Amino acid sequence: MATVGPSTASTQPALPSGPAVFKTIPYAFILPEIICGTWVWIFVAATSVSLPLLQGWVMYVSLTSCLISLLLLLSYLLGFHRNSENWKVLDSLYHGATAILYLSAAVLQANATIQSEAGPNIPLYYQLNCVASFFAFLTAFLYILHAFSIYYQ
């Protein structure tokens, strides 16, 4: 009869700390999420938020997610997680919820892009809105990848 002892401890990989965060999937997605989300905020702000009801939500989601993701990245870099499994759950829940919010923001930004075709400053605002839509969908995709990568890890 085989006994289960300390030698068959959990085979879960350790959470990365320090520079290893940038080399480990899914944690390597955090920096691109922050950068792409910052670009969303910059491009929407450059349009002077001509459609405040739509683009206000986009700016809120992008700015809030950037700040929370930055705090999460700093906590991984500084090793605040202490290799606790609860951090994986927190990270997965955060990135899953943010992926849904970012997808809604990306759809609203695409709608703002369509509406900006006929508005004032047509070429400039339309181009800025197009780029903001692209980065919003890219950022949503990065958050989705991060959430599913943690789930399947």
From TrEMBL:
A Pfam family that the UniProt record links to this protein: MARVEL
Family matches, as InterPro entries: MAL, Marvel, MARVEL-CKLF_proteins
Membrane topology: Multi-pass membrane protein
One term of GO molecular function: structural constituent of myelin sheath
One Gene Ontology CC term in the entry: membrane
Subcellular locations according to the entry: Membrane
Transmembrane domains' residue ranges: 27-51, 57-80, 92-112, 124-145
One GO biological process term: myelination
UniProt keyword terms in alphabetical order: Membrane, Transmembrane, Transmembrane helix
Domain MARVEL intervals: 21-153
PANTHER family according to UniProt: MAL-LIKE PROTEIN, MARVEL-CONTAINING POTENTIAL LIPID RAFT-ASSOCIATED PROTEIN
Protein name: MALL protein
Organism of derivation: Smithornis capensis
